[in-house]
Please model this.
Amino acid sequence: MRTTTISKLCCPFDKKDLDLQIISQDNDYDIIEGLLTCTECKRYYPIVKGIPIMSPDEYREAKFELPLMANWKQLNGKQVENFRIGSGDQSKN
Model:
């Protein structure tokens, strides 16, 4: 995913800006892995193999995304914890 694409994206739920945390880039500085986080609702959207995963909550499963987060452990010096798909209860996933 090109870094210029980020400015064209917004949270699909509340249309707010997204913060970007880059995990890895290729030689052309395209993003391979990263994390987009909504500045308002705090939903997160992982970037995997250059593709942002921005599916609605009902189509996402934490059990598939949490192992990815565990592999990243730290994002630019910040400890990864308390990530959530949305503001609702995650016990269903």
The helical segments are 62-72.
